[in-house]
Every structure is written in C-alpha cells, then in structure tokens.
Amino acid sequence: MPISSSSRILVFDSGIGGLGVVQALRSLAPSLTIDYLADTALFPYGEQPDDLLRERIAKLICQACEHLKPSLVIIACNTASTLALPILREKLTLPIVGCVPPVRWAGRVSNSRTIGLLATSATARRPYLKQLHEDFAADCKLIVHGSRHLANMAERAFRGEQVAPDEVQHELACLFEQPNGHDIDTVGLGCTHYTFLLPYFQRLGPAGIMWLDPAPAVAQQALRRLEDTAESPPLSDLPLPSDRFFLTAAPAEGQDLASHIAWLGFTNGWQIFS
Ligand code: DGL
C-alpha cells in the first residue's frame, strides 16, 4: 500500500546517528510521520558491555512501541542492530529494519579487494561482523578500525561545531596505516553517526576512496517494508501527533539540539521519553 500520512515509524539510535536515515526518509517520503528515539542516557553504545545493551535496547524498544504505536521500527544503529535484532524480532511482531556494516556492498564494488570499515569498538569486535565478512566478502581483505571517538565527533559536527582536522586524520590513520591499509579502495561506514563526518572523511582521507554510507539504502528498505505492511486505519478522527523527538536524558546543550533537529522536521523541539 502507498505511504500515507497515517504511516508512522519509529527511528532509534543512541544519539543523532539515525538522523542520516531520517534525512533520506524525508526526501523519499515527505508525508511519513517519524518518531525519533535517542538513548542519550547510555551514549556511546560502542563503549557499553553487550549484556547491558541487549537488555536495555529490548526493554526500551518494547516500551516505545507500546506508547508510540509505530507501523515499523528502524534500528538506525549498527551497534544495536548487530547485537539486539534477534531478540527484538522475537519480542515484537511489527516489521523491524536494522542497520548493519556495509561489508557486502563494499565487497561488490571494491576493485583492489581490500576493503576498510569504520565502526564503533563494539561493532568491530562482534561475531556478527566476522560472519558478514565470511558470508559476503570472503575474497576481500577486511581492515577494521573500531573507534572510541568518532561517534562523539559526529555529535559535535551535527550541532555545527568545528571538528579539528587532526582528530579526524588521527582516526583515519588508524585505518589506513594498518598492514595493507594502503590497498584499501572502499570504506564502509559501520556506524550511523559517521554520516555526519562524511564530508571530513572525503576531504581528509586518501584520494580516490569510495566511501559507502548505507543511510539511503536503509531508508529505501524501510519504505519497501512499509508498503508491504497492511495498515489498520486510524482509530479515531483525532489528528495524529506530528513528528516527535525523544531523548532518554537531556543533552548539555538542549537549546542547541532543538535548533539543529528542526531542519529535519522536528519543529517542536525534543522531550524526555518516559
Ligand atoms: N550510531 C551508533 C552505530 O551506528 C553508535 C554510536 C555509539 O557508540 O553510541 O553504531
């Protein structure tokens, strides 16, 4: 069925990372209503223990689905998806679209057959990543940098703060200066936050690299799933609340965040999810 203004979806991440997917959704389906939930109380996910995260994500998404009643959920976070997709699919019956490192895509397009991946430390060490490599790009050498800092830099870049080029260059060196790193011709963004650092990577990274940002493909996949979902009509004639932006903890610069999410359609500021 076509996307209608009564279609409501929930986009989830630990912070601003999922907004790259929201940006793609806005241009593909302007009438879609989007609720965004950022688990800022536990940001950065990439530095949290797996057990804590798995339990936390399952509880939070179940609560959010109960309150917000989306037709579909996008887990717009690689760190969450590579850990919690199975448990979420067990607990929820609605369609869930995840976001996983674009290793398959990189394997399809790399000429040098040496591919790079930037991700959080948690995603970098997950068996899920090893499996993706074995299943979809086994003939490529995969070089990974699990970064403790890039997600934070992306939060700053999103709020319009300048990120020092040396900081980004240092992180890129951690990828390209590994053994065989100079053979890399394609780098996948394995953390949704990195969408907002892409201009820095393109400017400061080696020339000729193909940078793969999965955000538009995740948005397209979500819209395909939504079209296949038979939707029940709204229960009353009352207008549905418009796009809402929830956080689990207030940001230090609240006012600042409100002005930066407005251009993505969240014009009523943010509120605490409880
Ligand atoms: N945006 C998240 C991801 O895609 C992670 C950032 C964090 O460490 O919280 O992995």
From TrEMBL:
Give the domain of life. Bacteria
- Catalytic activity reported: L-glutamate = D-glutamate
* Top-rank EC class of the record's enzyme: isomerase
Q: Which positions bind substrate?
A: 13-14, 45-46, 78-79, 192-193
Q: Which terms does the record give in the GO molecular function aspect?
A: glutamate racemase activity
> Where is the catalytic site?
77 (proton donor/acceptor), 191 (proton donor/acceptor)
By what name is this protein known?
Glutamate racemase
Q: Which organism is it from?
A: Bombella pluederhausensis
Phylogenetic lineage: Bacteria, Pseudomonadati, Pseudomonadota, Alphaproteobacteria, Acetobacterales
Q: Which gene encodes it?
A: murI
